[in-house]
Amino acid sequence: MIELVNVSKIYKLENKKESLVLKDVSLSINESESIGIVGYSGAGKSTLIRLLNGLVKPSSGNVLVDGIDINSLKKNELNFLRHKIGMIFQDYNLLSSLKVIDNVLLSLKISKYSDSKSENLERAKEVLNLVGLSDKLNEYPKNLSGGQRQRVAIARAIASKPKYLLCDEITSALDNNTALEIIEILNDIKEKTNVTIIFITHQLEMVRKLCDRVVVMDSGEIIEDQKVLELFISPKTKTAKTLINLKTELDEYNDNTFILKYKNSANKERILSETIKKFEIDFNILSAKTLDIGKNIVGYLILEITGNRVDEAIIYLKNKGIEVEKYEVDTYW
Ligand SMILES: Nc1ncnc2c1ncn2[C@@H]1O[C@H](COP(=O)(O)OP(=O)(O)OP(=O)(O)O)[C@@H](O)[C@H]1O
Questions:
Q1: How far is the CA of 38 from the centre of ligand 1 (A)?
Q2: What are the residue boundaries of the ABC transporter domain, all occurrences included (predicted)?
């Protein structure tokens, strides 16, 4: 488990000025969880993730990894603890003078994975195979595409079987298809290992495809922390709504226009037809959309509801677990 307890971070600037970039942040990350930390540029995400492996020291508060306050450790103890924590960066950070396989072997050597050269070699080949690069072992990074370089970085980060994997904007520099391939690889790694993934990004779409839980940051604070599925049904903050980025644009709507949001669609048809009969109302579907979130689906429907008992029908729908809101000009899906 990783815990941040009342962590603040102040950077010292020139002219003796200071900048408070994390404000009393507390957060617990459970084992085998995959958590997305999202927010706009400058929210403090990179600072937060760097606190988790001691690359940044807190100005106050504690960072605990498996119960150990990492800032109480001596340098060699911190280095040892870092073997538990793999990190991947936006700009890959590969050594250009080393071949793909040697980049991975170097990381195994540094983390003292095994004394046996052949075991290290076997492991390096295994992880490069896992990220689909078996045919690139002897290439230099400069001969690889951005997506392939990021795969090498993933292989290097997971080679010594870390318990935690920190990912700092690792899909941000890639085109959408390549970014989704990277997410697929991480999902595969998640399935095959118990690694805990901490994924920093401003691309909520990547979090939707990878993570169970999402933390939204704004100006150095955590402003939302909930299951990804719940965030897509009822985001609480404007930042989350904007990051979801699914603004609807209906040309015409009125006081009877509503947006319905629901998890998984199995009962939805039945509930809607029951509601129509029970309250003698009419539904006119204006727009519909579904999103897959992990193994779940979130559905959105924009309806015009007419009849004498609309209020009762809405209460009924809500009691059946369907989120209902009046449609307004800035409604987000
Ligand atoms: N070493 C530093 N010294 C001074 N200020 C810093 C330092 N690192 C970050 N900052 C400032 O701290 C704030 C938070 O930066 P941080 O990189 O943690 O945010 P972020 O959410 O990751 O943003 P981005 O996605 O742009 O990297 C920013 O205003 C940034 O300018």
A1: 14
A2: 2-244
pLDDT by 10-residue block (mean), the chain, 333 residues: 97 90 97 95 94 95 96 91 92 94 96 93 96 96 95 95 95 92 94 94 93 96 95 90 78 88 81 91 90 88 93 94 86 67
Task: Supply 189's token pair.
Answer: 């790694």
**Alpha-helical segments (H) within 145-227:** 146-158, 176-192, 204-210
Region of 220 on the Ramachandran plot (φ > 0 left; ψ -120 to 50 alpha; else beta): left
Number of domains making up the chain: 2
Pocket of ligand 1 (CB under 6 A): 11, 13, 19, 21, 39, 41-47
Q: Residue 12 Cα, ligand 1 centroid: separation in angstroms?
A: 12
For residue 193, the enclosing domain spans: 2-240
Report yes or no on 333 lying in a domain.
no
Residue 197 · residue 190 · CB < 8 Å: yes
